[in-house]
Amino acid sequence: MRPPTTPRERSAPEPASGPESPDAPNRTAPTPQDAPTPSDAPEAREAREAQEAREAREAREAQEKRTSREPVTPPPPEPADATPRGPADAIPRVPDAPTPPEPADATPADPATTASQESPPAPSQEASARPARSTPVRAHRPPAQEPTGSAAEPPVTDLADLAPAAWPARAAAAWPAVPLIAALALWAYAIRHTDVSALDDFGLLSALHPTFWAGLGVLTAGFWSTVRDPRRRDGWSLAYVLGLLVMERATQAVLYPAPLYAWAWKHDAVIDHLLTSGGLQTADQLGDMAVYDQWPGFFAAQAALVRVLGVDNAAMYMAWWPLVSSVMLLLPLLLIYRTFTADRRLIWTAVWLFCVGNWVGQDYFSPQSVAFALHLGVIAVVLRRFGGRGGRRGRSGQAVWTVLLSVLVTAVVVSHQLTPGMLVVTLVALAFTRRHRHWVPVITTVVLFLAWCLTAALPFLSAAMPDMIRSIGDVGANVETGYGATPTGTGAVATSWAARLLSGSVLLLALAGVLRQRVLRRRALPLLLVAAAPLPMFVASSYGSEMIFRVLLFMLPGAAFFAAAALLPKVRTLAGDAAAREAGGHAPVAPARRRRLPLPSLPPLRYAAWAPLPALLAGTFAFVPSYSGKDRINYFPPAEVALVRQLFDRAPDDSLVVAANRNYPLAYEQYWRVDHYWFLDDERRHVDEIVRDPATVLARDMAAVEAPARAYFLLTKGQVANSAMNGQLDAAQLRRVRESVASSSRFELLAENGAGVLYALRPAS
């Protein structure tokens, strides 16, 4: 009799009955004795791995013996009656249970025989084979025999054996490079097809090739599409901002063979003076130009740079200074913005708006360009290290930041006259907030500023103090641009209004951001004070009729931040996240970055996706006429540079140069030995006398020069453009002045070309 079955025996699978179908896969039925005991599992695993390797090697050798043109078929599918995979199969695959090692003298069993026979299990094996959890055990399946194909068929690779292709993920991750490269390619094409030989009253605006505007549009659209995607890295946003700066600030450096701005040439002359004299000089020696020797920080640093680079003068590289100075502003801007928020959309949109809103032209080769970057650096240090969080650091750490702050403030104080005053009012405004109620930065800045004003800068301040005192409180006069700075002509008026609309739009957006984003009014109040602090400077001084432009410049970092907030549906602040954590909630976190980024798709039609893009496009396009609309005034062709250089090469010491205005290259060249007189800067009554009888009046004004010195009359293309576009004398009046001098026997022609004329007063007989 057969003994009664035990529960374990009833749980064992029934042996297969009947012959197998030739189409079914050869499979060894699982039996209880196939489950290894815990003691022999490693040996069984090693034996099975060796068996699989041996079988794979044999299959590979068999495949190599076939013709190379035979196709390879994939393994046969699972039988229809195979047990479906349950929920446990959804978890990571558990390795197949190894089979016990076979004796050395055992011969391999036929799979078909093995499937139809099963030996009774031994009791000891049954006891050791009981698992704690039922795990499916699969028997080994030898590789199926592939049918041989026709010798004429090409070889086919089994795609299941290949690693998955990674190019879609890489393409999706790198797709922001496509609009960036396309924009720069369009910009390069536009540069090659732009002619600046004959600029009109619209400046570079009318000369640019249309592909330049297409490149700006592609760049702006690509930037917004990239920055609004939280899965993109900050490196792409930075790349787009750098591309914007290249298209904005490097276009003129590439197009124009000579540096722009008469003031840049003036600063080059100051550097040349330092290199020539070897030291600083007083007003008795230099006159009005001694003011630059009383704030020599920028010029001394540039003189050292000229020596290090081994160039003749700063004119060799100052055409690229707008790009260099704009890039210098990125680091302090990012530090300031990241003090208040981790929202990358808000940060990079604010940086973009700052770049397109900074049209006032103070990025040229000047002390203001460096002093403004240092100013932002001081603000960044104060906001990050002297606030509520930074104040809790140790005394040694606070001392290090105080030393760094002192170095930055000293560099500002010795380089520029106005920036230290802007810095003082900004730090005082920050000190009245609870978070930044730290008076060390204010006291440090005030002490260093006063120390310099009462020592090195005292000669200039003593002479200028009466005018400075009279201008205090005269807001109307302080915001006026002054005589000779009124735009005249269609092009000049249009570009002037474009600049006003651009600045007004940024300020209105900033106001909307303050009103709309309530969280910023509370959490980013220090940055709001940074934006508003320069406004009282309207009451203090006119700063040579430039105070309105400087106030706009110093307001822009804070205004751009709140303007960017107005373009976004919702923003986050670091302080708000911290408050949420302290209240027991969870601060919002950015979505996790996926390994496989989707290819770009059109965003849905909602405010967050589409409303900011037109605003960014409008601001980016408006920057070009605002910044480059007066290039007819600011650009000097090489012929004009050569004409003026010829003048100073032949002028003896103590000579006099008479010109309509100072808008020409090298206007201050060798100012320590040659005098200058610009008759349009004189009283209007005297200007009218010159217009009525140019040759007689000019000869009388130039007659005081004693030999061997000589008096020269210089009239260039840049002077005519500046006078005509700023409401002084028009081109016809200056042409009559030139014709009168040319027809007078008192003057002799020394040089003439397409950019101007040079005359000398004949010595009295």
Short description:
With 765 residues, this protein is mainly alpha-helical.
How many E strands? 5
**Strand line-up in the sheet with most strands:** 2-1-3-5-4
Q: Give the CA-CA distance, first to last residue.
A: 154 Å
Instruction: Give the overall silhouette.
Output: globular
Indicate the low-confidence ranges by residue numbers: 1-40, 68-73, 78-140, 143-153, 156-162, 389-393, 589-605
Helix segment count? Answer: 36
Structural class by secondary-structure content: mainly alpha
Global Rg? 40 Å
**Helicity level, as a percent range?**
40-55%
Overall pLDDT level: 78
Strand content: under 5%
Please summarize the sheet with the most strands.
5 strands, mixed
Description of the structure:
By secondary structure, this protein is mainly α. Helices cover 54% and strands 4% of the residues. A five-stranded mixed beta sheet has the order 2-1-3-5-4. Helix 15 packs antiparallel against helix 16 (344-357) and helix 16 runs antiparallel to helix 27. It is globular, with a radius of gyration of 40 Å. It starts with 6 loop residues before the first helix and ends with a strand. The relative contact order is 0.08.
